[in-house]
Design goal:
This protein has a single domain, classed as Phosphoglycerate mutase-like (Rossmann fold, 3-Layer(aba) Sandwich). The mean pLDDT is 96. It has helices spanning 26-33, 49-59, 84-92, 106-120, 132-141, 149-157, and strands spanning 2-7, 42-45, 126-130, 162-167. Helix 1 (26-33) packs across helix 2, helix 3 runs parallel beside helix 5 and helix 4 (106-120) packs across helix 5. The protein is α/β, with parallel strands linked by helices.
Length: 170
């Protein structure tokens, strides 16, 4: 089966709103509309607003099914600060430290993501609108991205939005 992973488009960051509720920015909405995704494929999004909006705009539909197992890595609320990329990269590279207290492990994130992929792809190909860290953790877990610094480089290169496809054995 073919899995098409869509990293959400650029959100409108709002300090007074949880990241899971950030809508797309105007540029993000335009970029999402420009995505070209496979036709006649099951599609599902993370339950985070930016992923839902990305998939809905890319497909030109009002509503898309959601699954919270496709959400970004579970962690305490964080501020978008100058060092947030370094903190996230350390997690992606499998080097969590004190800055990651309370974060879901990469293994746990990849397991929940994999369970959702396999549940939704039971009938064939699948499109998943999701988030950068969790999709990278899953790709590492299935051997499509090398662990450590290569995973960090892969994650840093992902755009907002971006599309990654992979084949998966049933």
């Amino acid at each position: 089966m073919r899995i098409t992973l869509v990293r959400h488009a650029a959100p409108a960051i709002r300090d007074d709103t949880p990241a899971s509720l950030w809508p797309l920015s105007p540029a993000g909405r335009a970029a999402a509309r420009g995505l070209r995704l496979p036709d006649r494929t099951t599609a599902v999004a993370s339950d985070e607003l930016k992923a839902v909006e990305t998939l809905a705009r890319a497909l030109g539909v009002a509503d898309v099914p959601t699954d919270p197992r496709f959400a970004e890595v579970w962690r305490p609320p964080e501020q978008v600060s100058p060092g947030f990329r370094e903190i996230r990269r350390a997690w992606v590279e499998g080097m969590p430290d004190d800055r990651h207290a309370g974060w879901e492990s990469a293994t746990d994130a990849a397991r929940r993501f994999d369970a959702a992929v396999r549940a939704h792809a039971a009938g064939g190909d699948l499109i998943v609108a999701t988030h950068g860290m969790v999709l990278t953790a899953w790709l590492v877990s299935i051997g499509r991205v090398a662990p450590g610094p290569p995973a960090g480089e892969f994650w840093l290169r992902l755009g907002l939005p971006d599309v990654v496809t992979t084949d998966l054995e049933p």
